[in-house]
């Protein structure tokens, strides 16, 4: 007897990442698209919307109604930071496992949502980045920081990105801080003659956010030591590159309880 497919709802389905998620779910034999939600689009078949055959799932605007009617197992959310936490709470309330690619969660949000997931007996995931290469970049950076604690992060995104610094750079900084501890770098008498020139401050080091048209997603972690530097860089060129990670997350979130912050924690 064949195993039942995982029923997936997608929030932000008409967005650039959401469309890739819809295509990925429709192409994966272990997954079933049961709902597609988008604030700006409705009444169109989700398959047609992403340029493939009609799938029989109509895009709607009401997330809660879609979750209830579709009996989804998992919600994949690529919406906006302003709605991320409320969408997660909504999903958990209906015992739908949230897989959140949207950033903007505070540590207090994460603690609260973890408790809610455990109370409802379901798993959840918040992942600033689903790219396998980006996760490896973070892991390598954390290892390097043990031996080369002087570090700065430079992240590059398109000029329409809403948050700065990126969720990926913040997650990288958190992983570095876990092994490095706070260390004030540079000249103690350093003075910015233009405010913000040295970037954002995090546990003694700096994060620099570049926003330009024509850029997709890049991050460089630069380490400096006497007589040498080390640069660990990851470049993303296409949103489809995130989809293998999203597929892994959807399947893995069915196997545990509680909220996990960071895709690296569920990688085999």
From TrEMBL:
The keyword GTP-binding does not apply. It catalyses: (S)-2,3,4,5-tetrahydrodipicolinate + NADP(+) + H2O = (2S,4S)-4-hydroxy-2,3,4,5-tetrahydrodipicolinate + NADPH + H(+); (S)-2,3,4,5-tetrahydrodipicolinate + NAD(+) + H2O = (2S,4S)-4-hydroxy-2,3,4,5-tetrahydrodipicolinate + NADH + H(+). Its EC number is 1.17.1.8. SUPFAM superfamilies: Glyceraldehyde-3-phosphate dehydrogenase-like, C-terminal domain, NAD(P)-binding Rossmann-fold domains. The keyword Oxidoreductase applies. The active site is at residues 157, 161. It is found in: Cytoplasm. Residues 133-267 form the Dihydrodipicolinate reductase C-terminal domain. Homotetramer. Catalyzes the conversion of 4-hydroxy-tetrahydrodipicolinate (HTPA) to tetrahydrodipicolinate. This is 4-hydroxy-tetrahydrodipicolinate reductase. It comes from Paenibacillus filicis. The lineage of its organism: Bacteria, Bacillati, Bacillota, Bacilli, Bacillales.
């Amino acid at each position: 007897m064949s195993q039942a497919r995982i029923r997936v709802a997608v929030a932000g389905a008409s967005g650039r990442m959401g469309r890739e998620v819809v295509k990925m779910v429709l192409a994966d034999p272990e997954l079933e698209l049961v709902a597609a939600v988008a604030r700006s689009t409705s009444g169109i078949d989700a398959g047609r919307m992403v340029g493939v055959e009609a799938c029989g799932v109509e895009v709607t605007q009401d997330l809660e109604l879609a979750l209830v009617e579709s009996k989804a197992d998992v919600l994949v959310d690529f919406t906006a930071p302003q709605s991320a936490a409320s969408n997660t709470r909504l999903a958990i309330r209906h015992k739908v496992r949230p897989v959140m690619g949207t950033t903007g969660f505070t540590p207090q949000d994460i603690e609260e949502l973890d408790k809610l997931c455990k109370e409802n007996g379901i798993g959840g995931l918040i992942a600033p980045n689903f790219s396998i290469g980006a996760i490896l970049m973070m892991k390598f950076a954390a290892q390097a920081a043990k031996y080369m604690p002087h570090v700065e992060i430079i992240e590059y995104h398109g000029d329409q990105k809403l948050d700065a610094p990126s969720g990926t750079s913040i997650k990288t900084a958190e992983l570095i801080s876990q092994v490095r501890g706070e260390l004030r770098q540079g000249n103690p008498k350093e003075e910015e003659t233009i405010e913000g020139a040295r970037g954002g401050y995090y546990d003694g080091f700096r994060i620099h956010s570049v926003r330009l048209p024509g850029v997709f997603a890049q991050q460089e972690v630069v380490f400096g030591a006497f007589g040498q530097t080390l640069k660990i860089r990851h470049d993303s060129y296409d949103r489809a590159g995130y989809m293998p990670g999203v597929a892994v997350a959807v399947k893995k979130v069915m196997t545990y309880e509680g909220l996990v912050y960071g895709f690296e924690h569920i990688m085999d």
